[in-house]
Amino acid sequence: MADLAIVFHWPPSAMDELTVLDLMDWRERARVRNSAE
């Protein structure tokens, strides 16, 4: 969840209603977006 907060600037309340699968999907998006090319 910290990855999402840092990369997408989301507060914890924005992630409260996400399922574990949604969190995993968004975490991967954050990883891709933040990875060095």
UniProtKB/TrEMBL annotation:
InterPro entries reported for this sequence: P2_GpE
Domain of life according to the entry: Bacteria
Name recorded for this polypeptide: GpE family phage tail protein
Classification of source organism: Bacteria, Pseudomonadati, Pseudomonadota, Betaproteobacteria, Burkholderiales
